Amino acid sequence: MIAPSVLSADFANLQRDVEMINASEAAWFHVDIMDGVFVPNLSFGLPVVEAIHRHATKPLDVHLMIVQPERYIQEFKAAGAHVLTVHIEASTHLHRTLQAIRAEGMLAGVALNPHTPVSAVSEVLHDADLFCLMSVNPGFGGQSFIPQTYEKVRQLRRMLDEAGSAAKIEIDGGVNAQNAADLKAAGADVLVAGNAVFKAPDPIGMIAQLHGA
Ligand code: DX5
Ligand code: ZN
After folding, report:
1. Separation of alpha carbons 162 and 151, rounded Å
2. What is the rounded distance in angstroms from the CA atom of residue 104 to the CA atom of residue 89?
3. How many A from CA of 95 to the centre of ligand 1?
4. Separation of alpha carbons 184 and 161, rounded Å
5. Span from the CA of 135 to the centroid of ligand 2 (angstroms)
6. What single DSSP character describes residue 44?
7. Residue positions annotated with a catalytic role
8. Residue 29 Ramachandran class (φ > 0 left, ψ -120 to 50 alpha, else beta)
9. What is the whole-number distance in angstroms between the Cα of residue 31 and the centre of ligand 2?
10. CB 4 within 8 A of CB 13
11. Residue 5: its pLDDT value, please?
């Protein structure tokens, strides 16, 4: 599954870019929320998520890069989130937060920064629907892929298979036509791609290429 990251879209032509993704082979819209505290950057907030949701014909995969993400679960549900992902590094009571996300009828995701070992999620393998391995330090689009991610994908794949968990593995950061096939082979299910898609001369063609990799 390919999830283009709206962070790299042209915000002055957001409807056009949403319609491009609607027409492509993408599975989800990846929507990055940054608070300037958990990460050193600001992106956009709830009104923009609502606006994307009004035009999107595919589910919204919302990635919260914010402190205390448990404070906004209902608001993101109301704004149209299908998947709501919180960072383990920002979640003192991760298990409770995942339960609260599912109780709102959303899929619950956990994101791990590059330095966080996959063993950190060993006790919540059945409590999340998605594990997002950050393959860059979160905060900005257009950064280079961190190659240690391959080993983390393989390890997490083994952990999920052994536990009998159907949770998906998502890779976020620096995904492109060069690493997509290797990430799939390592066990990734969902590839987020921002710059690779939106800076391509033919974004729909690039999404197809990543999809078929
Ligand atoms: C990074 C974000 C990513 C970002 C990916 O903090 O979480 O979703 O938009 O962008 P690229 O694919 O350009 O690395
Ligand atoms: Zn993201």
Report:
1. 17
2. 22
3. 25
4. 15
5. 10
6. -
7. 32, 172
8. beta
9. 7
10. no
11. 98
Distance CA 39, CA 127 (A): 25
Structural domain of 103: 2-211
**Of ligand 1's atoms, which has the minimum distance to the CA of residue 39?**
6
The minimum-distance atom of ligand 1 relative to the CA of 195 is 13
Distance, in Å, from the CA atom of 53 to the CA atom of 45, rounded to the nearest integer, reads: 13
Question: With a 6 A CB cut-off, is 2 part of the ligand 1 pocket?
Answer: no
CA atoms within 13 A on the CB side of 96: 7
- CATH number of the domain at 118, please: 3.20.20.70
Q: Per-10-residue mean pLDDT for the chain, 213 residues long?
A: 98 98 98 98 98 98 98 98 99 98 99 98 98 98 98 98 98 98 98 98 98 97
Task: Report the domain count for the chain.
Answer: 1
Task: Check if 192 has its Cβ closer than 6 Å to any atom of ligand 1.
Answer: yes
pLDDT at 48: 98
35 DSSP assignment: B
Query: Which amino acid is located at 150 in the chain?
Result: Y
Structure pTM? 0.98
Q: Compute CA distances 89 → 34, 156, 193, whole Å.
A: 14, 17, 22
